[in-house]
Task: structure prediction
Amino acid sequence: MELRHLRYFTAVADTCHFGKAAERLHMAQPALSHAIRQLEAELGAPLFTRTTRQVRLTPAGEFLLAEARRVLDTVEDSVRGVRRIADGRLGLVRVGFTGTSAFSHLPRIARAVKRDLPGVAVEVHADLLTPAQCDGLRNGGLDLAVLRPPAQGEDIELHTLEVEPLILAVPADHRLAVEPAVSVADLRTEGFISYASKDSVVNDAVMRSCQAAGFSPRREHEAAGTAVLLALVAGGLGVAVVPASARALPLAGVVFRDLADAGTVELALAWRRDNDSPLVRSVLDVLEAALAPQPQASEVSR
Result:
């Protein structure tokens, strides 16, 4: 039995007329009648009762009709699924996030993919440092990454999402919490809470800013991630210089202050340059549009 036999059979069953079914199938009526007789012979049971006035399904034919529709629907679903996969519109994409990018960019990414690619599921890998994300892109553990450059190696492609200023996080009762303006030099005598990893891009940027202000930061505590780091600040154990996206993590007892001379850190969307997956390309197209920098209100008014 072939799929075409099931299609022929359902056409006759739907119309109860060999001539009309043949027209629907764009084939000659004798050829259709022959195919149905072949199917009946293969199954060993009559599927239709035929008279000069009427064609009706037998009980065996009624059973086969339900099964044939189920099989044909499954085949059609499979064909549509294959085409959507080939078009990059169905599947699972694994995305890594570094630090606060999960709070600032994950909601936008999830919404954009859900809106434009409803057949694509996003698997989130959070709190990954840039080196670990690059390794994940290379070994296939990740498809895309939101990381802080630089990314080592020429096989990683980058699309800049934004350049974030570094800001100050201090305990609510700290002397700098009420100052109208704060500079890096004001932190000379402070104890710092920093990220625990030696590969932290933020730590490196903070070190450069402090050295430019004429001192080296005195690190008193370390934290594996931003949430714990801010909890230590709230506990009065020191101050921290963090990306501006940390404001997305409001915490009682922590006050954020701008630092005009603290420098910036970059955030970028990354993928393996030789990744030719249609799915990854489709998601990239959606995200590059959804995460494009938005014009400021003053620019819009102009």
Remarks:
- The two ends are 69 Å apart (CA to CA).
